[in-house]
Protein 1
Amino acid sequence: KLISNTKRPVLKNLDELPDPAWDLVDTSGYEEIWRNGRGFFSLNIATTRGCPFKCNWCAKPIYGNRYNSRSPRRVAQEMAMLMQEKGAEYFWVCDDIFGLKPGWVQEFQKEIDKLGIQPRYKIQSRADLLLEADNIDALAKSGLDEVWIGAESGSQAILDAMDKGTQVEQIYEATRLLKARGVRVGFFLQFGYLGETKEDIKKTINMVRELEHDDIGISGASPLPGTKLFH
């Protein structure tokens, strides 16, 4: 007969998980491609689960609005291991939001210094989380090379319709602070959200031109099942 189990409890202490089984992965082929194409070797790592923000077009089928993170020490140790054993020099930290907890990035920078490593890495974040000079300084000192900001639009009306919770002015200020510290900035942009007008699109294009970002990712608004946008 069909048995439906209760939902598993959400794991809050991610340090309870064992280290990823990197010894089972042959990374040599990936390293060859990276070095031939970019001149360095990059690997992906994850430091968190979930995102506490509520953008109404974003699908969160696994971890929902909960946010739990590994400790700065465990993340720094994994980076050190991958640099020493796999030859990695660069990391794409594939979390939705990196270093959200207060004091996390400062502690991470200290752990990187203790281990005596010099990784370079890129992250994803939000403009409103990149306005504290102390946070950006700690990120830059620990090896942050590039930040991808979920900018989405240069129109405040569209950001509000998305329940994004950010201000256009914050995108400008975060970009200025990051570039002043030598950190590259990429924008995720979304076109075609419900109610978007040519005037809204013009504001986004103007923002892109004015801020002179380093990279860009463009998508069309997609009504993913289960989201407010879909309904």
Note: Strands lie at 42-45, 48-49, 68-69, 90-93, 120-125, 144-152, 184-191, 215-220.
Protein 2
Amino acid sequence: KGKAIVPIFAGDSLLGTFDVNVKLPHEISPSDIKILTSLSEIAANAIQRMRSYEKIQKDAKYFASLNAVDSLINASDDLPNLLNTILDYMMDLLNVNSAAILLYNYNKLMLEYYAGKGFMSWNIEKSQLKIGEGYAGKAALSQQTVIVNDIRTEEPEYARNELLKQEEFISYIGI
């Protein structure tokens, strides 16, 4: 009698709960439940509006970034500047700590570091990987995105694994 839990729904989707506790001898009455139910409906509406607003803001930022990069591509003949700007946008949009671009060198048949941001050391700049080697090489070979949720638990056989650990990264995404 000293506790009430009222779900917060938006349509059929559960968003959360209101948990209310009272000290005895006070008891939660049916009118208290009505008030909590009304508050849960108001909260659901507010949560839905905020989520919609956040999505709209994120989408607007995403499309503005794509437009800016597209304009830069059309106006620039400076590849290093272009790729560094793309890295800036990517890091901001994805909220990642670092990013690098490895380009394929057809003469050496290797992926080589070309641009990067957010690394603690310069060791990333020495990166050269064969197609299929390391996470980036695996992504290039399979032409699939490679996601490693926790590189600390991965086998050390992958190229650059020590570099990634030295940078204190936990997750890796290679596209």
Note: The longest helix spans residues 30-75.
